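Below is how a single chain appears once it has passed through the pipeline. First comes the sequence as given, then the structure the pipeline wrote out for it. We keep one example in the README because the format questions we get most often are answered faster by looking than by reading.
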Amino acid sequence: MNKRCESCSEEFQTDKNYKRYCDKSACRSSRWRERHPDKAKIQRQANDHRRTRLGLDVFQRIKCRCNNSEHKLFPRYGARGIECRLTLQQFLDLYSNIELCSICDCQLNDDNRLAADGKTIDRINNNGHYEIRNVRIVCRSCNVKRNKGVNNGRSKLFDIDVIEIRNMSRSGISLSDISRQFDVSVTQIKNIVSGKSWKHIESE
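Resulting structure:
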């Protein structure tokens, strides 16, 4: 017989008249929560506590790199005038309640922020502050892709510089001379010339 799932509203086939949910994992979870309301409440509280703890850790990291001159990332944030203008409650409301990437809509991974789908916070304008209108929650993969090249607030180079660097290398100018001219390291020049970095820029 065909029945309609009470969780996802999709039809499914079953020979059991009492069955109210299909076999999708989310629907099975709904069935479990209905059967075990006390355990479900405890689980929700534990998940909320874990998200709050993770969000607090991220918020403290943001405050440190903006305010603590001893922090290794201070030159990239606080020294550039980037401020954290979010309150703790604003940040936790944003960080704890969003489960999908704001760019690609993938399911975010709370447990491993270093994974491709790890939950990260992104400033929409990389030269702007951490404030509610300028931040969003995205996966690590989208964050890395969006902040490459000139979109990276720490970048010293522009697209036209990368093209010129590659042309200069092809003309026989040494990497050390190029690095002095553009005030970047020889390693960075080598990566640009080899295509290891700035891959999205095609040489002319």
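The domain at 45-149 is CATH 3.30.40.220 (Herpes Virus-1).

See the next section for the split statistics.
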